[in-house]
Amino acid sequence: MPKTALITGITGQDGSYLAELLLAKGYTVHGLIRRASAFNTQRIDHLYQDPHEAGTRLFLHYGDLADGSRISTLLKRIQPAEVYHLAAQSHVRVSFDEPEFTGSTTGLGTTRLLEAIRSLGLPCRFYQASSSEMFGTAPPPQSESTAFQPRSPYAAAKLYAYWMTRNYREAYGIFAVNGILFNHESPRRGETFVTRKIARAAARIARGEQQLLHLGNLEARRDWGYAPEYVEAMWLMLQQDAPDDYVVATGTSYSVHDFLVLCFEHAGLDWQDHVRFDERYLRPCEVPDLVGDAAKAERRLGWRPQVLTPQLARIMVDAELAAAAPERPGSDAVVGVAP
Ligand code: NAP
Ligand code: F7E
Fold first, then answer.
1. For the purposes of burial, counting CB atoms within 10 Å of the CB of 334, is it exposed (0-12), middle (13-18) or buried (19 or more)?
2. Domain count within the chain
3. Which of 52, 139, 167, 240 has minimal Cβ neighbours within 10 Å of its Cβ?
4. pLDDT digits over 152-179, tens only?
């Protein structure tokens, strides 16, 4: 039986891969997009279907996480069987600059959705994009039973949303799950996240379009997986008999320095010739070491990662090398601010 899904954050990295996955499974997909003065749908342009033609299964709707009444109106009209809530101010460094905005979107945005679902009595399943950032300084490996120690306004907002998701599950019986996803990357990753910034710079330096790459803390360790595989785990969580929370991760750990070496070597470069330190990319609080234990996801969902960090680095650099030379300058030069 074909299903209808609503994806918030459909224009983001994960939203675009999830839309592809659901369309391939025969779903009708509705996406929430923000009105912007320029097009912000680049990641899903290849999925666009003319809404005037018969058989269209992708529909986009303007809306914002700040606007609870709009969210409620859309949910009532769309009547989705599954809601994947991926929209957020998702940048940790930016959350220190905009803590109130991050709390309102990344935290309260989840409550606005859950409360609309509850008050409408909508019998839908709900996915909350929770994050390994919530573990903060908790020593690795981190699993579903690890105590959270958030270290940023972003992590604190995500933790609030995590608990609201659990609360609506326990208080109102809503099928609401938390996917606690560790870092996952791809050629569609935003350009100011460190993996894309490094991969992009390696390709630009190899092409002679950029000389230097400025970075902050190279010692932080992350568990970096491949985004298209992680959206499969999101879907699996909503197909279970009962709602639960799951860690999704590779179980391996690499430092930013490791990722730098992997990318630059793949591009035939010596990173030491090109990388400079810039304190603007440091955070007031750092999360030192994230390594996920995804045993529960493997046991219950049958989910297991295929692409590990070294292959991920090659995929990302190859995609940048294959891309036509962009008209814009490198990430560091776009604007004069962190991150
Ligand atoms: P992303 O690329 O930054 O995408 C974020 C999406 O949210 C974009 O579509 C963005 O729209 C939308 N958005 C932001 N503020 C909004 C608002 N006020 N109203 C409506 N839409 C808004 O993030 P991602 O990497 O795909 O991650 C997806 C989700 O998973 C996020 O919630 C993120 O925090 C979480 N997460 C990510 C990771 C990871 O490693 N990628 C790990 C754990 C959790 P625009 O395109 O208009 O900006
Ligand atoms: O930083 C260090 C930085 O911004 C990774 C989001 O998707 O994953 C992401 O958050 C590490 C940090 O990702 C630069 O200090 C060094 O230790 O790529 P990032 P993140 O903060 O881990 C989690 C799971 C999410 O949920 C978030 O939404 O890299 N780093 N130099 C740098 N980071 C950036 N961005 N830029 C630098 O120049």
1. exposed
2. 1
3. 52
4. 999 999 999 999 999 999 999 999 999 9
Q: Which of 154, 160, 162, 168 is catalytic?
A: 154
Which tokens hold the place of 213? 């790459």
Mean residue pLDDT across the chain:
95
Pairing of strands 221-222, 254-255: antiparallel
Tell whether the model's pLDDT for residue 330 goes beyond 80. Answer: no
Can you give the residue range of the structural domain that contains 127?
A: 4-185+226-248
Pairing of strands 213-215, 275-277: parallel
Is residue 209 annotated as part of the catalytic site, yes or no? no
Is the distance from the beta carbon of residue 82 to the nearest atom of ligand 1 less than 6 Å? no
In a domain, 214, yes or no: no
Q: Give a yes or no: residue 310 inside a domain.
A: no
Is residue 302 domain-resident? no
Determine contact, residues 294/237, Cβ cutoff 8 Å.
Answer: no
CATH label of the domain that carries residue 108: 3.40.50.720
With respect to residue 97, please indicate whether it lies within any of the assigned structural domains.
yes
Q: Which of 83, 90, 102, 148 to mutate to test the pocket of ligand 1 (most atoms within 8 A of CB)?
A: 90
Catalytic residue among 16, 131, 186, 253: 131
Tokens 């999704």 belong to residue = 248
Residue 319, φ and ψ in degrees, nearest 5: -65, -40
